[in-house]
Amino acid sequence: MTDARTGHDEAAPARLAIFTDFDGTLVEIAERPEEVKVAADLPRQLGRAAEQLDSAFAVITGREIDDIDRFLSPLHLPIAGAHGSQRRRADGAVEGLDDDIVRAADELARRLEPLLADNPGLIVERKRGAVALHYRQAPELEQACKVAMNEAARFDDRFTLVEGKMVIEARPQGLSKGTALRAFMREPPFAGRIPVFIGDDTTDEDGFVAAQELGGVGIKLGSGPTAARMRIADVASVHALIQGLGDLSFREETGGRQHQHV
Ligand SMILES: O=P(O)(O)OC[C@H]1O[C@H](O[C@H]2O[C@H](CO)[C@@H](O)[C@H](O)[C@H]2O)[C@H](O)[C@@H](O)[C@@H]1O
After folding, report:
1. Does any ligand 1 atom lie closer than 6 A to the CB of residue 135?
2. Interface pTM (ipTM) of the complex?
3. What pairing do the DSSP bridges indicate for beta strands 217-221 and 16-20?
4. I want to staple 75 with a disulfide (CB 3.0 to 4.6 A). Which of 43, 110, 202, 255 is the partner?
5. CA of 62: how far to CAs of 22, 52, 164, 251, in Å?
6. Which ranges form a coiled coil (predicted)?
7. Does the N-terminal peptide bond of residue 114 adopt cis geometry, omega within 30 degrees of 0?
8. In what order do the strands lie in the sheet with 86-88?
9. Is the C-beta atom of 220 inside 6 A of ligand 1?
10. What domains sit in the chain, N to C, each tagged with a CATH number?
11. 125 CB less than 6 Å from ligand 1?
């Protein structure tokens, strides 16, 4: 029998689709965006889990897709980047934004240049269709950054501002980690599975809500208010959870009879 709300076949074993955030979830937070350290074995571990899940494994991140490819090389996963602005589907096709909104994001970043010139501790990350203003090296400038971002985004109502860990970002209106998760869930190999989304930050909340509305679960790393129904302690536990869910899926599917790559 099929559950009318979620589309899951109730007679079949529960098949999972795993979605995970990157910064603060798969890797520890670092002082600067380019300084994150990826555990040496992480790409192999994630690749193994993806194989066990029949490729129903994706990263949903605020970073650009290329960034994640570089950090997880040689692994190429389905990825939603820049808070849902870019998406590489499981079949490898990439969805992006119109050039117009990409140019508008560049323009928004240019409006921040005077603030940067006066405050070398600040970092602006320019993405295709999104902009992040980091103040981790200058926490006393948090309020000034918020004011500057609001001012820079004021000219273009196609952007929404979102706050993350020591960062304020502009992303296109109507796009989020939630819209990205829902888009994956409409396509193979994710469709018909139970979504699990793991994240640590406020920008992950849309992903938790989407996963739960689709009959799955959100898992929040760390403390703080959240819509997620479950919590997890730290990055090491996320690695162990992904490995465990991969193993479980493999056993459910095959009864452990098939040969598995390690
Ligand atoms: O959605 P995520 O994968 O968690 O990405 C969110 C943002 O992460 C990065 O910034 C954060 O991590 C940096 C490195 O640890 C840290 O220095 C910074 O303070 C954090 O905000 C990334 O640079 C952003 O582009 C992502 O949107």
Report:
1. no
2. 0.98
3. unpaired
4. 43
5. 8, 26, 10, 33
6. none
7. no
8. 94-95, 86-88, 79-81, 57-60, 16-20, 194-199, 217-221, 230-232
9. no
10. 16-96+175-254 (3.40.50.1000), 99-172 (3.30.70.1020)
11. yes
